[in-house]
Predict the 3D structure of the following.
Amino acid sequence: MWIGEGYVHKFQCEDGSMSADRPASDAASRDALGRWSTATLHAAEPVGILGVAAEPPAGRIEMVDGRGVYVRCTADSPAGNRNRPAGGNGEPIDDSADRNSDGDANLAGSIDGPDAWYIHGLAGSSTNWTSLAEALSGHATGYSVDLPGHGRSDPPPRGRYSIRDNADLVAALIRRRSRSPVHLVGNSFGGVISTCLAARHPQLVASLTVISPAVPDLRLTRDRGADPILGLLLVPGTAGIAERKLSALSPMARARGMGRICYGKPELISDSDYEAAAADLAWRAELPWAHSATIGSLRGLLRSYFGRSPSFRADAAKVSVPALVIWGTRDALVDVRLARTTSSWFSNCSLLILPGVGHTAQMEEPVLTARAVARLWMVAGESHIGATAVVATSWV
């Protein structure tokens, strides 16, 4: 589910849930930023996209440095890895119809190339990637990890939450599970971790995709996405207050609030989706570290903005592999107006702006997201069926 970062936003309703409502004129002006897109799309569309409440792939606990980390794999998906690149009519393409530059047939669904590793956002889990990982399962075996203290993973030793430690942990898992450099895909907080990983462990990475990365908004403007008072969480003693506020929200109120804050079009979320999200939240709330992990991770993110560790911008400058930045214009958490600047920090990067989409494009718009990511993977060295480039701005 999209269980994520909505509680950090400044728009709060009387019932404790969140609202991302913006004036219609402001939404329209931001939707027009779709013209910034430079990315191209894979010509083939994935089929049978799973809903956000679909059963995720099975997973298992991996022991890393004495702690359990939960990892899911698309090879164990209940959907049976049915996704293959498909034509515009939704039917699988005849493999013999397309040839690469050497005249050889491009094999649809071949997963002999790099694996894909998906890293979720703050307070999220590996289930945030169910739709996208399945959509791309014909291109790469996908691994989605529960970060420390999230989902079914243990908290870190001594409660130390940091971007660098998370990056090193995922790098250790990649070395264990994948035999070649991998495609990294991260959302929000996970986008920052993915970029740090690519900078610190370049030999492990074939390409990098970041979806609404949680970059700091230091512009002197009053209509930024995130609330500037979040910096107060760095003050000793404030974490307990924040944890108590989180605990006071019912699972359903929090689920609906997060739907409103993370989706550009929350009306796409069904009651059954909310029920599944609330059930997951209720289960996770029983874990003794559930709320402290959320606040601890947020504080770790804030420290990365102001601490001694390399910044996101410095990490991005070290990334030499092909990169893709994806952003929704209705993102209420990280302002879309940061997108073009953020993409410029990478040496080899394309940008996809999705009008009307919110903070979690991989859940709200998995088809266009999958097509852009698949195209990036092809550019990074893979060869796939139906790989004709389509300019993204003609579709969004």
Q: What stands out?
A: The radius of gyration is 20 Å. Confidence is low (pLDDT under 50) at residues 1-20, 84-110, 224-236, 382-396.
